[in-house]
């Protein structure tokens, strides 16, 4: 798993949960059933995730559950099932009287749906739930799927407050090589409509280490990003988990990894952070910079990392309710027929122990670049500094972290490789298991 190896080999780097997904299982399903049918802790923030698994094309580096070449009928069947699922979810006891504090439309490509499909989905969902009071409604977009009408629909009918645009790179040669569906011209076309629609937060996604990336092109990417001046920029370091076109090529055809090594990818992110900071942005996590921290808060990210409830809808979605992790079934037919029978499509679950919940929060919050030790003492009655003394000593010695008073802070070097620092906090039995 997560490695600091020089080359970008096949395997997962990015850590988004604990215990590892590979440990979740069907046997724990009664736990999530019980949690969903019991009243919540009313103080726990509630979020909703909706997964739209369709894309125009599969990126060669993509490891998500996505489908291409689907017809309108198949999309309709999926949207019907999703609507049914929201209806079932809206009746669950775990909802309590809690409003949704944050909503996230993820994919795949949610913007793959037409304006008509989006408006009708919103209207149907509003028959069961409301997200009018949500402080953040995020919607992931692929630039080439947008139109002026669609952007307006997102803002006015879905109430999207945070539009996240998958730019990834500004070079058409790189976009094509990596199998992206869009070209840079479509970014600029979309940008006009997005700017006109006045979203509180527009985010640009970039990837450091796309196949064919060079220093010269990367510098150009950052210049162009700064010119567009989005509220936030997210930069992921290219990873090649199992199930990507590139990783299959490396494993099957025994070709050399076509992706830059980890040090180069970190140098690129470091350069980007420095340039963006010089342009007035602040670093808000290992992956994100924001233009105005007082204006942009990341409700989804921050609530989720602190253990909020997240009701997951859509195929293969991940959620968390009253202390239990769960994931929906990953097979399309299974997902659709289960909902057509009127049942929730729960696939696997896991109830973390209190110690595992501590680990989860420690590793997720560390992605912001620091830990507030007081917060942990208050919430878990445990001091992460004492709990993992040896690990911290090593990180401080290696120049990856500093400790001062009630705060552990990652240095820039630590922050840029944060995901590789996290397995050290895992329980021994989870340190060398496959992550997903
Ligand atoms: C779930 S994807 C959805 C993107 C959306 N479908 C689009 O086309 O713009 C969210 C983000 O994950 C990142 N991502 C996807 N595959 C990746 C990989 N192999 N390594 C690093 N980041 C990746 C990309 O930046 C992407 O924008």
Unreliable residue stretches: none
Number of strands: 15
Number of helices: 17
Return the CATH class of the largest domain. Answer: Alpha Beta
How many independent structural domains? 2
CATH architecture of the largest domain: Alpha-Beta Horseshoe
Net shape: globular
Assign the structural class, choosing from mainly alpha, mainly beta, alpha/beta, alpha+beta, or little secondary structure: alpha/beta
Distance between the termini: 10 Å
List the strand order in the largest sheet.
7-8-6-5-4-3-2-1-9
Round the mean pLDDT to the nearest integer and report it: 95
CATH fold-level topology of the largest domain: pyruvate-formate lyase- activating enzyme
Largest sheet, if any? Answer: 9 strands, mixed
Protein described:
- This protein is an alpha/beta fold and 436 residues long.
- The chain folds into two domains: 21-303, pyruvate-formate lyase- activating enzyme; 353-427, Orthogonal Bundle (Arc Repressor Mutant, subunit A).
- The chain contains 17 helices and 15 strands.
- The chain has a nine-stranded mixed β-sheet with strand order 7-8-6-5-4-3-2-1-9, with helices on both faces.
- A hairpin with a 2-residue loop joins β14 (401-404) and β15.
- α4 (148-156) crosses α6 (184-197).
């Amino acid at each position: 798993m997560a490695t600091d190896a020089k080359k970008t080999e096949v395997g997962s780097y990015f850590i988004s949960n604990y215990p590892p997904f590979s440990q979740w299982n069907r046997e724990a399903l009664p736990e999530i059933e019980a949690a969903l049918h019991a009243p919540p802790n009313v103080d726990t923030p509630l979020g909703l995730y909706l997964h739209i698994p369709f894309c125009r094309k599969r990126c060669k580096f993509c490891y998500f559950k996505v489908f291409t070449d689907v017809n309108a009928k198949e999309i309709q069947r999926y949207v019907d099932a999703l609507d049914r699922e929201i209806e079932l979810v809206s009746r669950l006891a775990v909802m309590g009287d809690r409003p949704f504090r944050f909503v996230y439309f993820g994919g795949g490509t949610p913007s793959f749906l037409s304006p008509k499909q989006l408006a009708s989905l919103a209207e149907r969902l509003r028959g069961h739930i409301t997200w009018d009071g949500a402080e953040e409604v995020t919607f992931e977009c692929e630039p080439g799927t947008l139109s002026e009408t669609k952007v307006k629909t997102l803002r006015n009918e879905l109430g999207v407050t945070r539009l996240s645009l998958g730019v990834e790179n500004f070079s058409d040669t790189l976009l094509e090589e990596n199998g992206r569906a869009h070209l840079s011209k479509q970014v600029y076309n979309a940008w006009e409509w997005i700017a006109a629609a006045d979203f509180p937060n527009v985010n640009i996604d970039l990837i450091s280490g796309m196949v064919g990336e060079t220093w010269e092109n990367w510098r150009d990417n950052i210049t162009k990003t700064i010119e567009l001046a989005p509220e936030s920029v997210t930069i992921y370091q290219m990873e090649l988990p199992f199930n990507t076109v590139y990783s299959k090529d490396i494993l099957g055809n025994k070709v050399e990894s076509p992706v830059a090594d980890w040090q180069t990818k970190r140098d690129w992110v470091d350069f980007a952070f420095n340039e963006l900071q010089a342009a007035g942005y602040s670093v808000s996590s290992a992956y994100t910079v924001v233009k105005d921290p007082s204006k942009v808060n990341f409700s989804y990210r921050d609530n989720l990392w602190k253990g909020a409830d997240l009701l997951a809808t859509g195929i293969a979605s991940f959620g968390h309710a009253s202390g239990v992790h769960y994931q929906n079934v990953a097979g399309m037919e299974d997902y659709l027929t289960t909902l057509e029978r009127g049942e929730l499509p729960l696939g696997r679950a896991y109830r973390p122990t209190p110690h595992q919940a501590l680990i989860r929060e420690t590793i997720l919050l560390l992605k912001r670049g620091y830990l507030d030790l007081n917060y942990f003492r208050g919430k878990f009655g445990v001091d992460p500094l004492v709990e993992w003394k040896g690990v911290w000593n090593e990180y401080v010695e290696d120049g990856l972290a500093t400790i001062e008073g009630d705060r552990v802070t990652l240095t820039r070097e630590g922050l840029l490789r944060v995901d590789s620092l996290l397995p050290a906090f895992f329980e021994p039995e989870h340190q060398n298991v496959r992550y997903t």
